[in-house]
Specification:
It holds the Pfam family ABC_tran. With about 290 residues, the protein is an alpha/beta fold. It has a single domain, classed as 3-Layer(aba) Sandwich (Rossmann fold), CATH 3.40.50.300. It contains 10 helices and 12 strands. The chain has helices at about 5-10, 55-65, 85-90, 110-115, 130-140, 155-170, 185-205, 215-220, 240, 245-250; strands at about 15-25, 30-40, 45-50, 70-75, 80, 95, 175-180, 205-210, 225-230, 230-235, 255-260, 265-275. The strands form 3 sheets. A 6-stranded mixed β-sheet has the order 6-7-8-3-9-10, with helices on both faces. Strands 2-1-4-5 form a 4-stranded antiparallel β-sheet. Helix 5 packs antiparallel against helix 6. It is globular and about 55 Å long. The N and C termini lie far apart (about 70 Å).
């Protein structure tokens, strides 16, 4: 076992599904993440939050095996993902990044069927298990009525749900989503968050999503990782992570944290950017 793997196994509990130890992530000579330790609990919904440029999407790509770390190790069930073949990794980790593209004219049904690729051999035919996985994915995302529609004929929100259906058809234990609520209106955002809850609670999935909405993350996620400039500022249950001090440190915004009257989770009410803290009204404003 590699040194990085031994160190992480010593530090993380058996409940950790996906993790990274001492991760360094870089684009050429430019480091985005340096010395990051991150542990994502099994069968829980984890939200990665932080300002633009905090490394959220880059971290997600490395956890998916789409970006090779310049240093450190990504582990799945305590095993380095670098030891797994692309197909083997895809059977265990499904990922949906921002701005996916598909061939012109591809139907929603055909797109969702692509999610079965990791489970099919070169000579294997379409099986009842493949069809059942696709049918379930279409049902869960409410896209069954769109199965025969061309993807490029849909609205942005419908396309996003179709891509999510493809990811679900993969039936991987871990699902990684990069800003999955992009292009979704409020109704479908709520539907998606409830779907993630269902996948975690009823299907035992481990879901990790990059989110921009702090209150959405606090209400729906079991575990939050708060990031700034490629480092982990805090991680844990929402009530432990979302505080006025942490929000000001990470986002440079003063806020009031109250209890969500519906969910009982932290609710962040922004007050002012820190640059406005000592601003006094000018004579013209008084």
């Amino acid at each position: 076992m590699a040194k990085d793997e031994r160190n992480l196994n010593d530090r993380q509990s058996a409940a950790t599904k996906l993790a990274g130890v001492n991760l360094r992530l870089a684009y050429g000579p430019h480091s985005v993440v340096e010395g990051l330790d991150i542990a994502l609990p099994a069968r829980r919904f984890t939200a990665l939050i932080g300002p633009n440029g905090s490394g959220k999407s880059t971290i997600l790509r490395s956890l998916a095996g789409l970006m090779r770390p310049a240093g450190g190790t990504v582990l799945l069930d305590g095993r380095g993902i670098a030891t797994l073949s692309t197909r083997a990794l895809a059977r265990q980790i499904g990922v949906l990044l921002q701005g996916p593209v598909a061939p012109e004219g591809l139907t929603v049904g055909d797109l969702v069927a692509q999610g079965r690729y990791p489970h099919r051999g070169l000579l294997s035919g379409w099986s009842p298990q493949d069809q059942a996985a696709c049918d379930e994915a279409l049902r869960l995302t409410g896209t069954g009525h769109l199965a025969d529609r061309a993807l490029d004929s849909l609205s942005g929100g419908q396309r996003q749900r179709a891509w999510i259906a493809m990811t679900l058809a993969q039936r991987s234990e871990v699902i990684l989503l990069d800003e999955p609520t992009t292009y979704l209106d409020l109704e479908h955002q709520i539907e998606l968050m409830n779907l993630i809850r269902t996948l975690v609670r009823d299907h035992g999935k481990t879901v990790v999503a990059v989110l921009h909405d702090i209150n959405q993350a606090a209400r729906y996620a079991d575990h939050i990782v708060l990031l700034k400039a490629g480092r982990r500022v805090a991680s844990g249950p929402p009530a432990q992570v979302i505080s006025a001090r942490a929000i000001e440190e990470v986002f440079q915004v003063r806020s009031m944290i109250i209890e969500d009257p519906v969910a009982g989770t932290p609710l962040c009410i922004p007050l002012a950017h820190e640059s406005e803290r000592d601003r006094r009204p000018s004579p013209q404003e008084t």
